[in-house]
Amino acid sequence: MKKAISIAVAIIRSDDKILIAKRPQNKAMQGLWEVAGGKINHQETAEDCLIRELQEEINITPYNFELYKIINHDYDEFSLEMHVFNCKYWHGKPSPLEGQQLKWVTAIQMQDYPMPSANYSLKVDLLKE
To answer: How far apart are CA 72 and CA 67, in angstroms?
Structure first.
């Protein structure tokens, strides 16, 4: 039986742009781009995880965010449940705290950045907006 992993991630929006981050070389799926977030810890809600991960990864504290969708995706090694939140409001200035690269891109530009396969449907949905 595959390991099940749950994560919380944010579509961080400013005007018509979305913040994406390039995964550092020392992490799984290194070099791929993603929306910020991370693993939900035992007995942590997806919302609490999102706040913690954004503080740890990019130095912002989100507020008034809402669930956009939940994506379930099977990788060879594990099953992923990805809680995706819309985030238009935060305190702080996004800055990379884990050696990653950050970029503001439009939904159309996002299509040019290689991302983990679990992000495919998210990229499609953002194009439709």
So the answer is: 14
Give the pTM. Answer: 0.94
Reported as a single tens digit per residue, the pLDDT across 74-121 is 999 999 999 999 999 999 999 999 889 999 999 999 999 999 999 998
- One-letter amino acid at 126 equals L
Encode pLDDT of 42-86 as tens digits: 999 999 999 999 999 999 999 999 999 999 999 999 999 999 999
Residue 79, helix vs strand vs coil: strand
DSSP 41: P
Q: Which residue has the tokens 């742009």?
A: 17
Q: Which residues contact 41 (CB under 8 A, 6 or more apart)?
A: 49
Whether 54 and 36 have beta carbons less than 8 Å apart is answered as yes
Task: Give long-range contacts, CB 8 A cutoff, 24+ apart: 20-28.
Answer: 20/102, 20/103, 20/104, 20/105, 20/110, 20/113, 20/115, 21/57, 21/58, 21/96, 21/100, 21/101, 21/102, 21/103, 22/100, 22/101, 22/102, 22/103, 23/100, 24/98, 24/99, 24/100, 26/99
